[in-house]
Design a protein that fits this description.
Elements: H1 4-18, E1 23-28, E2 34-36, H2 40-47, E3 54-58, E4 61-65, E5 69-74, E6 80-85, E7 94-100, E8 104-109, E9 116-121, H3 145-152, H4 159-164, H5 174-183, H6 197-216, E10 257-261, E11 264-268
Helix pairs in contact: 1-6, 5-6
This protein binds zinc ion.
Length: 287
């Protein structure tokens, strides 16, 4: 599933491709993808004549701002946008096509069919689910150490599932949770209420640094993720623990282990991320 850095990369690519284009009509072949309004015909009518003004992002959601409406799109597992000319053959698993007046088409393909679209009058999108229920935006100035701690620190719950829970912090998924926990030297099964002041500070910094570096690299390209123009993100080569099972830790040289935490595959260095608080021999966070 694309996480914040991948969605941000798609946002930037799509901005270059579709801002300024006007929708003539829309075709939907998988009605259940359209979550709001429930009536797909109404969804299509609302989009007629709307020009794409800006593309924003909230957590893992793309927010396509039109003249009068905002289209909130979540790609889930395999959703993918592409800009085509009308002459290009329509690929299998294309479920939504936005036909622009200039003859180009924005097509949404989704092999797994888990993606969702919500269309709201402009400005109302943040007052309704799914955006209403999202937590802090980690690359925003509102993501302060104080606010991060306030939301999580008293919970007797494992830290990794808390990082993955979009209602506390939006945009972090399995890859970047593992990366941030490794960078801060915190075992994913430590409970939030067991973290020290210094650990909260390291974790807060690690979340920002991990996501920022990944955004700069254009995201990771685990499995089939390819961004809007078909380039592979470069962050995969920079991953410190994720996907590196049995390979040497960049910091201590010991083998990276893969385990399961909260039902999710999890990569850790057991030496650099001790299960008991205060056990780490290392003070410096690796670079
Ligand atoms: Zn290590």
């Amino acid at each position: 599933m694309p996480e914040l850095p991948e969605v941000e990369t798609i946002r930037r690519t799509l901005s270059r491709l579709i801002v300024g284009r006007t929708i003539d009509r829309t075709a939907v072949t998988l009605g259940r993808m359209i979550q709001h309004p429930k009536d797909v015909a109404q969804f299509c009518v609302m989009l007629e004549g709307q020009t794409v003004r800006h593309i924003g992002r909230r957590g893992k959601y793309l927010c396509i701002l039109l003249d009068d409406y905002t289209l909130v799109s979540h790609l889930r597992m395999e959703g993918r946008y592409g800009l085509y000319s009308g002459a290009d053959p329509v690929e299998k698993h294309t479920h939504v096509i936005f036909y622009f007046r200039d003859g180009t088409e924005l097509r949404y393909r989704d092999v797994r069919q888990f993606g969702t679209m919500h269309l709201f009058p402009a400005g109302e999108e943040r007052r309704h689910p799914p955006l209403r229920d999202l937590g802090l935006e980690p690359l925003d100035s509102s993501f302060t150490l104080e606010e991060f701690r306030r939301r999580l620190q008293n919970r007797p719950t494992k830290i990794k599932p808390l990082l993955l829970n979009q209602k506390y912090v939006a945009g972090i998924g399995n890859i970047y949770a593992d990366e941030a926990l490794f960078l801060s030297g915190i075992h994913p099964e430590r409970t939030a209420d067991s973290l020290s002041d210094a650990e909260w500070e390291k974790l807060h910094e690690a979340v920002i640094r991990t996501l920022r570096e990944a955004v700069e690299a254009g995201g990771s390209s685990i499995k089939s993720y390819v961004n809007g123009q078909g380039e592979m993100g470069r962050f995969q080569q920079q991953l410190r623990v994720y996907g590196r099972k049995e390979q040497p830790c960049y910091r201590c040289g010991g083998p990276i282990e893969k385990t399961v935490v909260g039902g999710r595959g999890t990569h850790i260095c057991p030496r650099c991320q001790p299960k008991e608080a205060g056990e780490s021999e290392h003070q410096e966070v690796c670079g």
